Amino acid sequence: MNSLVRAGFSFAKNAVVSTSIRSISITRQLNLKELRERTEGSTLVVEGVTVPSPRTNLLVRAEDLAGFEPSEGTAEKPCYMCSLGLDVKHTDVLILSQFVRSDGCMLPRRITGLCKRQQKKIGKLVTMAQKAGLMINLTPANCQKDPKKRRLYKKFNTYFDEKTIFMWRIPKPTDRFKR
Amino acid sequence: MSAVKRVQQWATFARTWHVFDCKWQDPYESAGVIKKYLMGLHKPIYHPMNDCGDVVVCINSREIALRGNDWRQRAYFHHTGYPGGATWTLAWELHSKDPTMIIKKAVYRALKGNLQRRHTMERLLIYPGETIPDDIKQNITNQIRQIRLVPTRLDHIPEEEVQKYPKVMEYPEDYVLK
C-alpha cells in the first residue's frame, strides 16, 4: 500500500513539476554552452554562458585539404577521421586530448561524431595514453595519475602496440571447398 | 690515403665506445642493436674469429619501457640446482630489485650461446641512471640512435603550443562544455 502511494505521488510530481521546469529555457538553445557557478552573498548562481568553440579557425577537415577526392560508389559518407586517414598513435596526446572531457572520460559518439570503428579505436588509444601516463592532467580522478607514484607493476614505463586494438578482426579464411 | 679514409681505418680497428640511452626503449628490441655493436657486426672487417667488438655503455636502464602487460606477465626463471629450487621472478619484481638486470639478460639472450658470449658481455656496461663514472665517460665517442621516440607528456607541452595545434574534433552546437 505504502509503495503504491509513493509511486502515485512520484508520477503526479513528474507530471506537474518536472515537465514544467524543463520547458523553460532562458538562454538560446543550440549553442555551445558552459555552466558557470558563482556565489553572490548567500545565493548560488548557476548560469549557462554561451561560449565560442575553442580553436575553430584551426579545424582540419579532409574536404578543405588540397587534393581531396570524394569517394564515389558508396552511399555512406566516411566519418571525418576515416577521410583524414591519419595514423594516430597513443603517443599523439595533442590529438587524443580533443576527444576527452576535462575529467578524462572519453566523449560519447553522439558528441564526437565518429563512426563506430573510429570511436572504439580512439577510445582505446585514450586508455593507452592514460595508462602510459602521457595525459596525467586528463585522467579520471580515481586513478593514480603519475606512473612514478603507482604501485607494483604499474610504476614502470609501458608502451603499447596499436596493432593490438583490432586483434579479433582476422579475415575469415576463404572456403576452399566452395563450388 | 685521404685524411678521412685514414681516420675511418683507425676507427675500424680501434675499440670504439658507444653510449645508448635506454629511456622509453624496449630492451628486447634494443638488444638486437646493442648486440650488433658489441660483436662488431657493423664493421667491414667482421669475422667471428677476430676480436673487433666495441664497448656499449647503456644509461637510464631504470627508464626502460615494456610493451602492454609485459611487466606482470614476463617471468624470469632461475633454478638453484636443488630439488624445489625453481623460482619464477616477474619482470617488475626483477626490475625493482635490480634495474640493470632486464637489459643485461635481454642482450645475453640475443647473443649466440657460444664461448665468446661471456667475453662479449664484459664489454657491456649498464647504469640505472644518467650518471656515468668519469673514467668511462672520457672514452665515449659515439651515440647509438634510439629505436623508439621518447613520448612527451601532455602537461610538459607548453600551453601556447597546445593552443596552436590543429583541431580535428568539433563540438556539436548543443553541447554543454565540461
TrEMBL record, chain A:
Native source organism of the sequence: Papilio xuthus
Keyword Ribosomal protein carried by entry: yes
Protein localization: Mitochondrion
Domain of life the protein comes from: Eukaryota
Pfam families registered for this protein in UniProt: Ribosomal_S18
Keywords, alphabetical: Mitochondrion, Ribonucleoprotein, Ribosomal protein, Transit peptide
Protein family membership: Belongs to the bacterial ribosomal protein bS18 family. Mitochondrion-specific ribosomal protein mL66 subfamily.
GO biological process entries: mitochondrial translation
Name by which UniProt lists this protein: Large ribosomal subunit protein mL66
Primary localization: mitochondrion
Record-annotated membrane-spanning stretches: none
An annotated Gene Ontology molecular function: structural constituent of ribosome
GO CC annotations, alphabetized: mitochondrial inner membrane; mitochondrial small ribosomal subunit
From TrEMBL, chain B:
UniProt record, GO biological process: negative regulation of translation; translation
GO molecular function: mRNA binding; structural constituent of ribosome
Keyword Cell membrane among UniProt keywords: no
Pfam families listed in its UniProt record: Ribosomal_L13
Listed InterPro entries: Ribosomal_uL13, Ribosomal_uL13_bac-type, Ribosomal_uL13_sf
Domain of life: Eukaryota
The entry's keywords: Ribonucleoprotein, Ribosomal protein
Any coiled-coil regions, as ranges: none
GO cellular component: a single term: mitochondrial large ribosomal subunit
SUPFAM superfamilies named in the record: Ribosomal protein L13
PANTHER family referenced in this protein's UniProt entry, alphabetically: LARGE RIBOSOMAL SUBUNIT PROTEIN UL13M (PTHR11545:SF2), RIBOSOMAL PROTEIN L13 (PTHR11545)
Family per similarity comment: Belongs to the universal ribosomal protein uL13 family.
Designated name of the protein: 39S ribosomal protein L13, mitochondrial
Species this protein is from: Papilio xuthus
